[in-house]
């Protein structure tokens, strides 16, 4: 069994230890120490980063109480090593994990919902609850969570024996009967947990719920805490200041101003689309064959081709095939009809010009490759 220094002192960032073994397996050296401050992957939290004698620790896993440090370089059994944690990463994770405990305890106290899933990544945390939380519920949870942080309550670690744990009320996803480790935050939360935590809630700094979504009949929260929450706020603040400058408004009016600009953009986009359709129609040069009417244009969209087809149907046109190209070789097309089944024509066109596309019996669209002359020759042979 590896002595787990991170359980005794979460703030241990540098230590010395003896190498018990070093085995090479699957391209890595698996190093076992008599003690370590490296937290192995577990409980939704990634393993610690850091070095052993200057060698990067790539992964840390635990198997039957033995903690394995994976490296790309060998360290001989019997050697003494100096281990150093990537403290910035570790402390951020401690802030997040402690913040999650406060948040989960608050949700449980307010609504009776259980934390049924937890995952921490470099982009924040996701926390899953087995009940539905509405926007106003989440705002209340966030407020209470941060008030607990401001109170700077102690975060205590204990190892109650089985008989001591029996009457205790604590959160746990697993039925733990041996080596129970409880993390207690005042009367806010008590939870079985193997991870390192900050000593007091004030060190969490702040908890911010970034988003929430339905999840398996419950609710998934995306959350950031501590330095990660501050980084997120700093990013949003920079973006807000940039928008304030662009829109020439105060911070309080950014949202309204952005919404008005979006409405204007959508209106202009619609007007532009209508003008493009009219321009496409005015420049279209239809060719009338016995079976259908066709036309070739440049830089039109499917919507614009459909508009032109509908205009053609206002006259004595039964079937139309319209094409548009950006480079004179690759064409988009539509085939439309008032009453004919155009699907055989679509298949023939695709087969002849390495095309893709399809649709309904009276309308289809797609893409083909060929020259205008060859396509015209082919279209003249259609019958409907």
Q: Would you write up a description of this structure?
A:
It is a single chain. With 384 residues, the chain is α+β, with helices and mostly antiparallel strands. The protein has helices at 5-8, 87-111, 135-150, 162-165, 226-247, 254-283, 302-312, 343-352, 372-380; strands spanning 3-4, 14-25, 28-33, 35-36, 50-52, 55-57, 59-63, 66-71, 80-85, 115-121, 124-129, 155-158, 182-185, 189-192, 207-215, 218-225, 287-288, 293-298, 319-325, 330-337, 356-360, 363-369. The strands form five sheets. Strands 6-5-9-2-3-8-7 form a seven-stranded antiparallel sheet, with no helix packed on it. Strand 15 and strand 16 form a beta hairpin. Helix 2 crosses helix 3 and helix 6 crosses helix 7. The chain is elongated. The model has no long low-confidence stretch (mean pLDDT 94).
Structure summary, number of beta strands: 22
Which spans of ≥5 residues are poorly predicted at pLDDT below 50?
A: none
- Characterize the overall form: elongated
The main β sheet shows up as: 7 strands, antiparallel
Beta-strand portion reads 25-35%
Q: For the largest sheet, list the strands in their spatial order.
A: 6-5-9-2-3-8-7
Distinct helical segment count = 9
Name the structural class.
alpha+beta
Overall mean pLDDT stands at 94
What's the end-to-end separation, in Å? 82 Å
| Helical proportion, percent range | 25-40%
Radius of gyration: 33 Å
Short description:
This protein is α+β, with helices and mostly antiparallel strands and 384 residues long.
């Amino acid at each position: 069994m590896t002595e787990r220094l991170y359980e005794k002192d979460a703030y241990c960032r540098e230590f010395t230890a003896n190498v018990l073994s070093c085995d090479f397996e699957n391209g890595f050296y698996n190093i076992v120490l008599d003690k370590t401050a490296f937290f192995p992957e577990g409980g939704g939290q990634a393993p610690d980063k850091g070095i052993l004698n200057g060698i990067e620790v790539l992964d840390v896993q635990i198997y039957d109480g033995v903690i394995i440090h994976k490296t790309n370089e060998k360290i001989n059994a019997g050697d003494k090593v100096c281990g150093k944690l990537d403290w910035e990463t570790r402390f951020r994770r401690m802030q997040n994990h402690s913040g999650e405990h406060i948040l989960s305890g608050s949700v449980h106290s307010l609504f009776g919902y259980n934390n049924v899933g937890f995952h921490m990544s470099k982009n924040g945390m996701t926390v899953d609850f087995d009940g539905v939380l509405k926007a106003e519920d989440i705002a209340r949870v966030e407020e209470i969570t941060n008030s607990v942080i401001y109170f700077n309550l102690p975060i205590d670690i204990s190892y109650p024996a089985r008989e001591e744990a029996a009457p205790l009320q604590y959160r746990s996803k697993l039925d733990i009967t041996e080596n129970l480790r409880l993390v207690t935050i005042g009367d806010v939360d008590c939870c079985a947990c193997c991870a390192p935590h900050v000593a007091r809630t004030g060190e969490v700094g702040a908890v911010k719920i970034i988003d929430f979504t339905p999840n398996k009949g419950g609710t998934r929260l995306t959350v950031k805490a501590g330095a990660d929450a501050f980084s997120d706020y700093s990013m949003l603040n920079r973006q807000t200041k940039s928008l304030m400058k662009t829109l020439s408004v105060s911070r309080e009016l950014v949202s309204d101003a952005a919404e008005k600009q979006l409405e204007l953009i959508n209106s202009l986009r619609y007007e532009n689309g209508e003008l493009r359709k009219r321009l496409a129609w005015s420049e279209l040069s239809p060719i009338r064959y016995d079976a259908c009417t066709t036309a070739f244009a440049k830089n039109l969209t499917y919507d614009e081709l459909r508009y032109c087809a509908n205009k053609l149907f206002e006259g004595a046109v039964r079937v139309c095939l319209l094409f548009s190209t950006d480079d004179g070789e690759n064409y988009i097309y539509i085939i439309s009809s008032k009453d004919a089944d155009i699907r055989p024509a679509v298949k023939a066109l695709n087969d002849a010009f390495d095309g893709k596309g399809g649709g309904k019996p009276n309308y289809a669209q797609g893409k083909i490759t060929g020259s205008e002359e060859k396509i015209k020759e082919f279209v003249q042979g259609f019958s409907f």
